[in-house]
Specification:
This protein is of the alpha/beta class. The chain contains nine helices and eight strands. The protein has one domain (3-216): Alpha-Beta Barrel (TIM Barrel), CATH 3.20.20.10. The chain is globular, with a radius of gyration of 17 Å. The two termini are 23 Å apart.
Length: 220
């Protein structure tokens, strides 16, 4: 059995044990295997094993890697987890089922325009700059409500929120704020938790965990 499959099995075991310990009923988070920079021959082991959710952060790389595979396997769900430039939206919505990084009005408008033209409606996460870090993308918490309503007015299929907490601080503080935000606005999906902190994210009911290096190993 390939190492990536073993890693995925171990992660799933850890997650199940943690959920059982915290006693959340009917809670089944999905793992997005963050496959950016890894070639498809390496990723194919867990595709064949039956894993369906994958994350990429560059549109061109995703098109080159996934176009043929998605034609052959229509259960594959591709997630755009990186910053999306407006000039890439046209191509992005043809390959990505989910976009996790919607964080400004210009981008929201462009997605709205392109989805009308292409009769495609990707599932959208609003990225929240939960640590209020100037170098990071995302909507400020204070602007969230207005931006959320703006996205809905454009007929975007907003299903969730996404965050990347500050590296050097306790993730739980920020995960807790995200959970409160979702509850306040009755938003179902919550994309948070990566290889270093996904176990923490479970305590706050993250529904999508973005796990890369813990499955595929360190990127070169």
């Amino acid at each position: 059995m390939h190492i990536t499959i073993n890693n995925l099995i171990e992660i799933n075991k850890e997650i199940k044990a943690k959920i059982s310990k915290i006693d959340f009923k009917n809670y089944n988070p999905k793992i997005i295997a963050v496959s950016k920079t890894f070639n498809i021959n390496y990723i194919s082991h867990i595709i064949n094993y039956g894993h369906i959710h994958f994350g990429e952060n560059k549109v061109q790389e995703a098109i080159e890697k996934w176009s043929e595979i998605k034609k052959q396997n229509n259960s594959i769900q591709l997630h755009m987890i990186g910053k999306l430039q407006t000039n890439k939206v046209k191509d992005a919505i043809k390959i990505f089922d989910f976009i996790h990084s919607v964080d400004n009005e210009k981008l929201a408008k462009k997605i709205s325009e392109e989805q009308k033209k292409n009769i495609l409606r990707p599932k959208i996460f609003i990225q929240v700059n939960i640590g209020n870090e100037p170098q990071k993308s995302g909507i400020n918490l204070n602007d969230f409500f207005n931006f959320y309503n703006f996205c809905l007015s454009l007929d975007l299929n907003v299903i969730g929120t996404m965050c990347i907490p500050p590296l050097e601080k306790d993730s739980s503080v920020f995960f807790s704020k995200m959970r409160e935000l979702n509850l306040k606005h009755s938003i179902k999906e919550l994309s948070m938790g990566m290889s270093l902190d996904y176990m923490d994210a479970l305590r706050f009911k993250a529904t999508f965990l973005r796990i890369g290096s813990k499955i595929f190993g360190q990127r070169t």
